Amino acid sequence: MRKIFALMFLFFLFTECASVSEKSFILEIPKIDEQIENLSIEEKVAQLFIVEPEALEFSDDEKFVALKCSRKIKKNLEKYPVGGIIFFKQNITGKRQFKKFISDFQKASEIPLFIAADEEGGNIVRLAKEPSLKLPEFENASKVALKGETAVFEMAATIGAYLKEYGVNFDFAPVADINSNPENTVIGERAFGSDCEAVSRMVAISVKGFHSNNIAVSLKHFPGHGDTVGDTHYGCASSEKNYLEIADCEIKPFVSGINEDADSVMVAHITTPKVFESGKDRNGNYLPATLSYFWQTEVLRRRLGFKGVIVTDSLGMGAIKNFYTPEESAVMALKAGSDIILMPEDFERAYYGILDAVRRGEISESRINESVKRILLLKAKRGIIKSF
Asked: Which residues are catalytic?
């Protein structure tokens, strides 16, 4: 990784001198584009991925669970220097084991990693589900929100504190969806409520809570998963609202979180058939937001002015893998505007899918550079990249 240490030094120099609250404080780092150009295209494409640790073992055993950063994982991490690793409860057996697992991953990676988890509080937690860690437990967000803004802040700050203790630096939280459809089986009480204005306030407060411990956050699931029927883990889910209806309700909490300097937005696999601009695939099916240029680039980037990192929901979920190959979905997500490809069904196929698309000119290297820049800037902003 040629001149990567110079890149790290520049990040350290400017992050030490700037306030985290300044939304664009790091955008003027001199020669950052030149530094990124010194990475190989293979290194840059790898930075676009956050994968589970098992994805780097390349085991033939579908039931394999990674509990340590094995020699094979370290070797594959060198070949595929991914941007981050996401951990689940299955990867945790105890305090010492989990800390070492994360520490060994960071030591094995030349560019420091995002260490991610889904730790919302309530039913959706990874660390807090492991009894041996003896972590605080919370009710679902909807019930915490009934106790007021202080309770929401304290939940986020507490979760952020224990994530920081273990070395987790990126939380796929808070949920910015609105619980507006009683038939929705995916969001429900994970949302802060059913009123868009109240949810908007709570989302902003939750972002503040996580940031009080310097944890990067990801608002989810854009453009709003709360008014859908169907579970994207297994198949399709769609919203029957038109764009104006979505903008007047579902999108408001995301705007609130973005205004509070949320680091990332996670895009949902939901389709929006009454939003004709959302686009269709080669078979004439409406694109999920994860693969939609309209939702990611036209709305999130241009209309809402979001300058942070866009991350897909897991591309290994049924709503994607049942209809698209790992190569197709990764390339389509990137072309739509995503920066981070999360948990593709087959990491190696997705990686080479993007790499081949660049080599044949379907995706420009400058487009890859845009995403790598956002990823590295976020790592610097949250102190993940430090001096060497």
From this structure: 233, 313
